[in-house]
Amino acid sequence: MPLVTLAEVLKDADAKGYAVGAFNCNNMEIVQAIINAAEAEGAPVIIQASQGAIKYAGLEYITALVRAAAAGTPVPVVLHLDHGTDFNQVLRCLRAGFTSVMIDGSKYPLEENIALTRRVAEIAHAMGASVEGELGRIGGTEDHISVSEREATMTDPEEARRFVAETGVDALAIAIGTAHGRYKGTPKLDFDRLAAIDRLIPTPIVLHGSSGVPDADIRRAVELGVRKINIDTDIRIAFVEAARQALAANPDEIDPRKVLGPAREAAAGIIRHKMQVFGCAGRLHISPRG
Ligand SMILES: [Zn+2]
């Protein structure tokens, strides 16, 4: 089926109380892994590309890959820009056919973030696409900052209420203690803050940096209103570990398919598990292909 918007898939998720997985891609094998997992689990899915992924693969390639994947599946697929920071880059993605974009103005003061996000939301909505904004700073696991410093970067519930009311975003990424990358310990999520934000805003909530967060914490976050969950690092780990194992098992291998095929399968495996935890598995009544 043709690509659908983020607002469309999140509407059903919000009505039924589950989260849709948003999985990062940067090559054909990962796009296929995401689609294979979504078909096997009967789940709607968000395929997202970061600016780095677009730089690596090319905007035309990413768009064509995901369009082809969507056209050949009964599963609803959203093509989303992850962490757009540049206004013109966001426009290029919308023109290329992305059905959803994130504009990350979180590094700016509140007023500037609102102005930038509202401008993007107006354009995206006029083009029939959805918009995700970010409030609070979701750092990296490599950022060596203290617990109190991390807390200062978390999303303020009252500011979140104002942000969604004034920008018109379709989804809001919040900072409640997760970070991008591979965690050294176990992240501590501020569930009280999440609950407070969910009480104040009608907009679906997005959780970034969700790789490595224990399944029980993810389930609790979904219960408290998270409707889109981003996974990148866990896919990278599964993909590269499997490729490494395939090479180690046969160091003389020269067929890329023998290395990337197992990597694709490993990625699909971890994505299927995430879909079950998020609650989006089994939401579509399609006949599974395997
Ligand atoms: Zn993120």
Layout of strands and helices, then pairs:
Blueprint: H1 6-16, E1 20-24, H2 28-41, E2 45-50, H3 51-57, H4 59-71, E3 77-84, H5 87-96, E4 100-103, H6 110-126, E5 130-135, H7 147-152, H8 157-167, E6 171-174, H9 191-200, E7 205-207, H10 215-223, E8 226-231, H11 233-249, H12 256-278
Parallel strand pairs: 1-2, 1-8, 2-3, 3-4, 4-5, 5-6, 6-7, 7-8
Outline of the structure:
This protein has twelve helices and eight strands. By secondary structure, the protein is α/β, with parallel strands linked by helices. The protein has an eight-stranded parallel β-barrel, surrounded by ten helices.
Describe the 3D structure.
By secondary structure, this protein is an alpha/beta fold. The protein has twelve helices and eight strands. It has helices spanning 6-16, 28-41, 51-57, 59-71, 87-96, 110-126, 147-152, 157-167, 191-200, 215-223, 233-249, 256-278, and strands at 20-24, 45-50, 77-84, 100-103, 130-135, 171-174, 205-207, 226-231. The longest helix has 23 residues, at 256-278. The two termini are 19 Å apart. The chain binds zinc ion. Zinc ion (ZN) is lined by residues 83, 138, 180, 208, 230.
Q: How many strands, which pairing sense, and closed or not: the largest β-sheet? A: 8 strands, parallel, barrel
Described by the principal axes of the CA atoms, the overall outline is globular
Distance between the termini: 19 Å
How many strands in all? 8
Tell me the structural class.
Answer: alpha/beta
Mean pLDDT: 95
Number of helices: 12
Uncertain spans, ≥5 residues at pLDDT below 50? none
What order do the helices and strands follow? HEHEHHEHEHEHHEHEHEHH
Measured by DSSP, the beta-strand proportion falls in 5-15%
Q: Which ligands does the model contain, each kind named once? A: zinc ion
**Rg (CA only):** 18 Å
Strand order in space, largest sheet: 1-2-3-4-5-6-7-8
Q: Tell me roughly what share of residues is in helical segments.
A: 40-55%
